[in-house]
Design goal:
The complex is a heterodimer of chains A (about 425) and B (about 170). Chain A has about 425 residues and is α/β, with parallel strands linked by helices. Chain A has helices at about 5-10, 40-50, 75-90, 100-110, 140-150, 175-185, 200-205, 205-215, 230-240, 285, 300, 305-315, 330-340, 345-350, 400-410, and strands at about 25, 30-35, 60-65, 90-95, 115-120, 135, 155, 160-165, 195-200, 225, 260-265, 270, 280, 295, 325-330, 355, 375-380, 395. Chain A has 2 domains: about 5-260, Aconitase, domain 3; about 270-415, 2-Layer Sandwich (Aconitase, domain 3), CATH 3.30.499.10. Chain B is α/β, with parallel strands linked by helices and about 170 residues long. Chain B contains 8 helices and 7 strands. At the A-B interface, helix 2, helix 3 and helix 5 of A face helix 5, helix 7 and helix 8 of B.
Chain lengths: ~425, ~170
């Protein structure tokens, strides 16, 4: 019996040729990271335990992205904890203006490469699986342990294979595929599993699209989302990697706990209704719900191609007078590219606001928190009760195309209606 | 070691945003986080938990964000043990690492009522419903996890590693 890509990466990181799901291991970590919410707790543990060094400062990143630029005094102090720790131990740290949303920023910086084993104290760490990396979210105590020892206890997950066949309809994006998948299997449909995304549709997806799909694996309870590396991956990695990479592919006789095949031809743009990412319906079924806010960005959909798609829809049209639109490029590099391409000009001229790269409104942090009874269409990844603000506010998750179309009409809208 | 207490019961898919909303994540203080624990789900939770410290919940408890502030808030609020139909992966790790006793037992969720008194034997994993005079056996932890618990969680394990191996590096 062969191994899946996830099993191969885990085996390689504990010096084994063969590994099986369910086995407990303590593999070597290639990169451990945390943010301004989770890292302060890890640093507290680090000090409390009497640690005096990190295993390798180059392989640790502290990313201030959640409540930054500092939203208040207390969040400023949390960032100070990261800054001080990085100065003392030499770990990777970037100042506001040069830092982005961790899951897009770290791969862009070349700190994550194919074949890596990455742990991050943030649930969306699974995003990096798009590179053919095994990346999983952990807690703050875990991060503290990983920073000290360079290792972490893990259970080898079983792998579920998702095969996407056919041709995507116009206006259907990677976001629609992953929403459709979560709608099919549920918010605990892949608990503890690695979700391997494959098939000709995935081969044709851009890297941004692959990141979007892997990003939301955790919304089905998965430990990791992963895509086998190919030419697309290599083109992307070659320009960025700061370390050597290694390409792993699943064996043809690998063991999967389940294989799901989707025909994408039938899938139309999807939307997840509150309060769960699995409450997914085709957009056409709920068109017409009035909205107050649209957020286009985040670690899920803050890539350059997401902004291009939104700008394309806004071009020559107006944002509805009752809607506020917040655009959040995921990293300063994406922000700058969007500026050079004239995308930001489109957004600003139509009355959207451009936010610095921050998680901000996605988790009800700042820069776009919702009030009582307000509704938002958002390209983010969670629509839990109170996620974006007041407990009686509502978040509808969708693609940048659906979000932009809805912003123009002032209500949930299928993009074909305005194009 | 045994824990005995009254039951507080909630539903499925309770996520860490509900357990501790992000608006309070500007601190790592257990006491402060505890004050707001589960307030968006049940505004009386922090009062109720003083009387009923065993949490019985449905599927996928602790899903969503990896924030360890969630188990920290529950611990601070006085939750002594959590019995769920199932737990989300990162929340499960966080509880083990912090030494919070958690068990998966779908039957308990189906059969135990709120405010009943139950007793849990942490060593054997036997749960006794003292109100209904009925007992349940939970699934044993895998050996590796049991060792981790016996050592006092990841914290003690790493402290030992620091002492024995890493201090001289």
């Amino acid at each position: 019996m062969g191994m899946t890509i996830a099993e191969k990466i885990l085996a390689a990181h504990c010096g084994k040729d063969k590994i099986e799901p369910g086995v407990f291991i303590e593999p070597q970590i290639d990169l451990a990271f945390g943010n301004d919410i989770t890292a302060p707790l890890a640093i507290e543990k680090f000090k409390e335990w009497g640690a005096t060094r990190v295993f390798d400062p180059e392989r640790i990143a502290l990313v201030q992205d959640h409540f930054t630029p500092n939203k208040d005094i207390r969040s400023a102090q949390q960032c100070q904890v990261l800054r001080d720790f990085s100065r003392q131990y030499g770990t990777n740290f970037w100042e506001v203006g040069r830092v982005g949303i961790e899951h897009v920023f770290l791969p862009e910086q070349g700190l994550v490469v194919p074949g890596d084993l990455v742990v991050g104290a943030d649930s969306h760490t699974c995003t990096a699986g798009a590179l053919g990396t095994f990346a999983c979210g952990v807690g703050s105590t875990d991060l503290a342990a990983a920073m000290i020892t360079g290792q972490l206890w893990m259970k080898v997950p079983h792998t579920i294979k998702f095969i996407y066949r056919g041709e995507m309809q116009k206006w259907v994006t990677a976001k629609d595929l992953i929403l459709y998948t979560i709608g099919d299997i549920g918010v605990d449909g892949a608990t503890y599993a690695a979700m391997e995304f494959s098939g000709e549709v995935i081969s044709q997806l851009s890297m941004a699209g692959r990141f979007t799909m892997c990003n939301m694996a955790v919304e089905a309870g998965a430990k990791a989302g992963i895509v086998e590396p190919d030419e697309n991956t290599l083109d992307w990695v070659k320009m960025r990697a700061r370390r050597k990479w290694k390409l792993y592919r699943s064996d043809s006789n690998a063991r999967y706990s389940e294989i799901k095949v989707y025909r994408v031809d039938e899938i139309e743009p999807q939307i997840a209704l509150p309060p769960l990412p699995s409450n997914v319906v085709p957009v056409s079924q709920i068109e017409g719900i009035d909205i107050d806010q649209v957020v286009i960005g985040s670690c899920t959909n803050g890539h350059l191609e997401d902004l291009r798609l939104a700008a394309q829809l806004f071009q020559g049209r107006k944002i509805h007078s009752g809607v506020r639109v917040i655009i959040i490029p995921a990293t300063p590099h994406i922000y700058y590219q969007a500026l050079k391409e004239g995308l930001l000009e489109v957004f600003v001229s139509k009355g959207a606001v451009i936010s610095p790269s921050t998680c901000g409104p996605c988790l009800g942090g700042h820069m776009g928190v919702l009030g009582e009874g307000e509704k938002a269409v958002s390209t983010t990844n969670r629509n839990f009760t109170g996620r974006m603000g007041h407990q009686k506010s509502e978040v509808y998750l969708a693609s940048p195309a659906v979000a932009a179309a809805s912003a123009i009409k002032g209500r949930i809208t299928h993009p074909r209606e305005i194009s | 070691m045994q824990i005995e207490g009254k039951v507080l019961k909630y539903g499925h898919n309770i996520n860490t945003d509900e357990i501790i909303p992000a608006r309070y994540l500007v601190t790592t203080s257990q006491e402060e986080l505890a004050k707001h624990c589960l307030e968006d789900l049940d505004e009386k939770f922090v009062v109720k938990v003083k009387e009923a410290k065993i949490l019985v919940v449905g599927n996928n408890f602790g899903c969503g964000s990896s924030r360890e502030h969630a188990p920290l808030a529950l611990k601070g609020a006085g939750v002594a043990c959590i019995i769920a139909v199932s737990f989300a992966r990162i929340f499960f790790r966080n509880c083990l690492n912090m030494g919070i006793p958690i068990f998966e037992c779908p039957q308990v969720w189906q059969e135990v009522n709120e405010a009943e008194t139950i007793q849990i034997d942490l060593k054997t994993g036997r749960i006794e419903n003292l109100s209904q005079k009925h007992s349940y056996a939970v699934l044993p932890y895998p050996e590796f996890v049991q060792q981790l618990i016996d050592q006092g969680g990841l914290e003690e394990y790493i402290k030992e590693e620091i002492k024995t191996k890493l201090i001289t590096l």
